[in-house]
Amino acid sequence: MARQSNLNLLGVSAFCESLGMMIQSGIDLNEAMSLLKQKKDSGILSEKIDVMEKCLSEGSSLKQAMEKAGSFPEYAIAMVEAGENTGKLEEVLFKLAHYYHKQDRISSKISTALTYPLIMLLMIIAVLLIMLKMVLPAFTGIYQTLAGSLSESSFAYINYAYAFCKIVLIVAVVIVVAGLICYFLYKGKGKKTVEKILRLDPNCARLLDDLAMYRFTAAYEVYLSSGYMQDEALNSACAMADYEPAEARLKKCREIMDEGRGFAYSANEAQLYEPIYGKMLIPAERSGNTEDTLAHLSDLLSDDAADRVEVITGKMESILSGVMMLSIGIALLSVMLPLIGIMNSIG
Which of 68, 109, 265, 295 is paired with 280 by a 20 to 30 Å CA distance? Predict the structure, then answer.
């Protein structure tokens, strides 16, 4: 069962980097944790450092201390365990700091991508409610007193405005409700269902795939740098993808590797990455630079995911802004046309 992390991504990154720097300076783990404890920063991280410092003083490993603290992601705990088992804890901590810093950047962009459309939709709903409850009734009352001066077609424009605003209002409310339902499903047990819906849009499908392959690649690189063999590292890192299309390709990659092929060849055959990225692995594997190339590849995937979020946000912004302006424009035009009819009658 996945552990719910109370620490934000930057908190995990800062902890890993600070601890890694102390270990790199020759400070042993117990003393390093004591020094972190002395910083007395307020917040959840300070509380968890107290718990870990006590565990370490009792002879526990860092992995066990992090589990006892109960606020670290499962991935961080698994990577720390790998670093402790292979004697490369310092290197793993720095890689984790980099990983969670990148994750925070992507998460911030995704939060913005989700928040901005919600705000726009709420603004559209508010504007339409004002139009339906205040603006249109006011003009309707005025025009009803002047009905004799208006043709039937001119007065009908008001009814069209009512109908149009009501339709757009209903659609906006349905979208907001559906979005909230999808959000809570995604956070709960309906993640796979929501992903299937999102995959209907090519940009969302590519984003989900980039994120999955970024998580896998970063984990695979850390496992390799920790001293794991390729097949063992692959099996351990596959769980990080957590996305059905990516998991299917990873399964195929494992099957090819089981036939005695290397990771680079298997990854290209299974089409784990786009061809331009996948071909980077073959010369890297032959020259013994697989780990550096994977680190570079994970950065590229992270940047691609961040750029794709911006593209999706930009498209949603344009569409929602257009809908709001169109709604206001049509409503105002509908109430102005009868006024033009009155002026023509007077003239």
Answer: 109
pTM of the model: 0.77
The domains of the chain are located at: 9-72, 99-347
- Higher local confidence (pLDDT), 237 or 145: 237
- Single-letter code of the amino acid located at 343: M
- Report d(CA 233, CA 237) in Å as an integer: 6
Confidence bin at 249 (pLDDT 50/70/90): very high
